[in-house]
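User: Design a sequence. Structure:
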């Protein structure tokens, strides 16, 4: 009996200990699984888990960003720390402020603006401003259309994505002027996607989708004939040729993608948009990133740096997360079963002891009754003997048989 009770109590202790150890992991896993369709809630759940497991993770990432001379990323991690009420060392916070001030200085901005305007490559605010300025003056898009159009006309390998983005950019640029900047995010998004494509910073899945979509944006034979003698020095002729070959009805997907990228760039910065293109595998990923950036703003880049594509959706690990929840529930089930077994065995033991006590009381009562009965009989015999004395020689037999 005692062995069975000890076994049940051991089960309670083991399951309770396992449950306490599993609870934090199960809670984090449950939060992530619940928020998997909401990029903002998903990011919050993952940040909470990361900071609980490693409170120094933000400071460490800021140090790495500063070492890589990426002030924008360091500032993003500092924004996360401020939002999460994580106190950074004063020296570290000061270094972030100085790095950001240096990166945003007039001389640095002017240099990056000129580089972006001439080369069309953007990786920060200054170079993006130059690139967008070049595209708004149709310089950049014409340059890319002529370059890729020449390749097409000569039967050489053509980057249809660059060609489609540049063609769409010329059409959107006109709309930007007409609407006084109303579609500027789309214009900036097209530039960012085009620049990311040039330097190979678009995810493989997104590249495949965008290239397939861009193939339908331009009428190849028409453009091939139109740009055979086109030149960046004759922008009017080139624009007319591109507009004639551009299929507006086929550009919806590319334009929506560019709009989402532009929204990310507005809220999270140029590098945040480029990071999004690097980790995204489909337009849906970019849409999720835009939703995240609208809420998290400057924190977006740090979040994507920490969690990669997992910041946008539960791309992998769902089974592992589910297992944490399963084992926690299993420990809870074992704890409940052990409590039930312990309760049953304690109750059974109490009942057995109660029965034993009751049996002992009944035996004692019966013994007392028997003794009292014997005493009454003995008293009766003595009384009879006193009333009817018998001869001495006959008294012994009477007493014996009585």
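Assistant: Done.
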């Amino acid at each position: 009996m005692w062995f069975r009770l000890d076994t049940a109590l051991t089960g309670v202790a083991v399951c309770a200990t396992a449950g306490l150890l599993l609870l934090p992991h199960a809670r984090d896993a449950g939060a992530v699984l619940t928020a998997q369709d909401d990029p903002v809630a998903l990011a919050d759940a993952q940040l909470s888990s990361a900071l609980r497991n490693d409170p120094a993770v933000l400071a460490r990432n800021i140090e790495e960003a500063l070492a890589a001379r990426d002030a924008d990323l360091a500032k993003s991690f500092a924004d996360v720390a401020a939002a999460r009420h994580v106190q950074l060392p004063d020296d570290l916070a000061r270094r972030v402020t100085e790095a950001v001030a240096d990166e945003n200085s007039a001389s640095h901005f002017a240099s990056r603006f000129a580089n972006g305007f001439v080369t069309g490559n953007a990786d920060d605010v200054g170079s993006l401003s130059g690139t967008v300025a070049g595209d708004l003056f149709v310089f950049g898009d014409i340059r890319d259309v002529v370059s890729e159009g020449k390749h097409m006309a000569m039967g050489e390998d053509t980057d249809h994505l660059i060609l489609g983005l540049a063609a769409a950019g010329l059409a959107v640029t006109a709309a930007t002027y007409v609407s006084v900047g109303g579609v500027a995010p789309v214009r900036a998004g097209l530039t960012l996607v085009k620049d990311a494509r040039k330097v190979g910073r678009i995810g493989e899945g997104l590249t495949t989708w965008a290239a397939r979509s861009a193939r339908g944006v331009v009428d190849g034979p028409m453009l091939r004939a139109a740009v055979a003698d086109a030149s960046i020095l004759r922008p009017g002729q080139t624009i007319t040729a591109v507009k004639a070959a551009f299929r507006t009805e086929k550009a919806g997907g590319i334009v929506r993608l560019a709009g989402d990228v532009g929204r990310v760039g507005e809220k999270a910065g140029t590098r945040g948009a480029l990071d999004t293109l690097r980790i995204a595998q489909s337009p849906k990923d970019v849409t999720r990133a835009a939703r995240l950036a609208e809420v998290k703003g400057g924190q977006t880049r740090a979040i994507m740096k920490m969690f990669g594509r997992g910041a946008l959706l539960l791309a992998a690990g769902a089974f592992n997360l589910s297992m944490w929840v399963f084992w926690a529930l299993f420990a809870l089930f074992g704890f409940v079963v052990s409590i039930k077994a312990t309760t049953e065995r304690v109750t059974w033991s109490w009942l057995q002891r109660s029965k034993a006590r009751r049996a002992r009381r009944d035996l004692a009562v019966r013994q007392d009754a028997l003794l009292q009965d014997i005493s009454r009989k003995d008293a009766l015999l003595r009384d009879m003997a006193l009333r009817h004395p018998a001869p001495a020689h006959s008294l012994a037999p009477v007493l014996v048989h009585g």
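The radius of gyration is 43 Å. The CA atoms of residues 132 and 191 lie 6 Å apart.
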